[in-house]
Amino acid sequence: MVEKPDVGELAPPNRTLMGPGPSDVHPRVLRAMSTPLVGHLDPSFIDIMNEVQELLRYTFRTDNQWTIPVSGTGSASMEAAVGNLVEPGDTMLVPTNGYFGDRMASMAERAGGEVVTVDAPWGEPLDPVAVETAFDEYSPDVFGFVHAETSTGVLQPSVPELTSIAHENDALVVADTVTSLGGVEFRADEWDVDVAYSGPQKCLSCPPGASPLTLNDAAMDKVLSRETQPRSWYLDLSLLEGYWGEERAYHHTAPITNVYALREALRLVAEEGIEERWARHRSIASALKAGVESMGLEMNAPEEYWLPSLNTVRVPDGVDDGAVIEYLLEEYDLEIASGLGALAGDIWRIGCMGHSARAKNVSYLMTALGDALTEQGAGVDVEAGLAATSDAL
Ligand SMILES: *Cc1c(COP(=O)(O)O)cnc(C)c1O
């Protein structure tokens, strides 16, 4: 006999989310998610799809016709990009300077591609000279890079330089903008990026479930002239074209509620203004950075490639990074994260994304972190940190 389960009413704790995502969701987005469902082919939903596409183009800074939310999390839009662009026998160049370049490599390999790498240490961006050298050595068909590396808190500068190297070599460029879209300056068209994908639960402050993707005509030409079908039916863009393109025919049932949520999250982006939103992330995260530095802590990324949406702070000697994370969660209902891979144990990762990029959140975080570090007996100047943050705010 399978017993009847005794499960109580859903009551998750009320956290403040300052980790690498998800970020705090705006109340308007939560309200949008509680509105009634319509069918995925309902004329009213077709209008909503068009609006979401228009809002996505605004946010990506692109005129690309082919701009859609992919059903699934950021990894789904990532796999749609890589799995459609890379054909068996193609070579894809990927970076080794963080966790998500490795994920790109796994996806390219599963798509039947040959993976080659351009190296940089974890915690540093790619050097255009190294990218050029890799192109000379391997002549890849596709070049992927991570614009905002969430594992290291590094922003990839000089994107137009990278895309021009790739285009001089007839390769297509795929950008991971999961932790930059809607939070950090990114311009798909002006920077000549062929394909960019993102996720909703980082700087867009929307629950995971429908993930932005944009492709220009050159990329879509390649996708539509493949000799072999992509290995995934679900993420085959030539089939998704039937639903998101002119025809609006059934492919799979869109996650209606997530599309509502994304629409509202993107409406908030447009209301604020994309450039104003980039500026807000920068100024709020600067206050966080000023505070931790004045406490006597060190940021892992130098100013030139500091990523405002994801701040990596070095764990001081003698402090247990995990104990601080636990203390913040238990005492303050506040989420931050530890380092990954090569940086495990060395850094904390503090997100400053979307609705979490607010003065209120940063003040709260600084107070809580100061307390946690005092508790750990770290030799930090909490007063100076709090003063620097409040001055900056
Ligand atoms: C979070 C993240 C992803 C993956 O997104 P999921 O929503 O977790 O599937 C990919 N790339 C980067 C840079 C990310 O931060």
TrEMBL record:
Cofactor(s) essential for the protein: pyridoxal 5'-phosphate
Glycoprotein keyword on record: no
Pfam families per UniProt: Aminotran_5
An example Gene Ontology biological process: glycine biosynthetic process, by transamination of glyoxylate
GO molecular function: alanine-glyoxylate transaminase activity; L-serine-pyruvate transaminase activity
Keywords, alphabetical: Aminotransferase, Pyridoxal phosphate, Transferase
Residue ranges constituting the Aminotransferase class V domain according to the UniProt record: 38-339
Keyword Transferase: yes
Region feature Disordered, mapped onto this chain: 1-25
Family, as annotated: Belongs to the class-V pyridoxal-phosphate-dependent aminotransferase family.
PANTHER family: ALANINE--GLYOXYLATE AMINOTRANSFERASE (PTHR21152:SF40), AMINOTRANSFERASE CLASS V (PTHR21152)
Protein name: Alanine--glyoxylate aminotransferase
Organism of derivation: Haloarcula pellucida
Organism classification: Archaea, Methanobacteriati, Methanobacteriota, Stenosarchaea group, Halobacteria
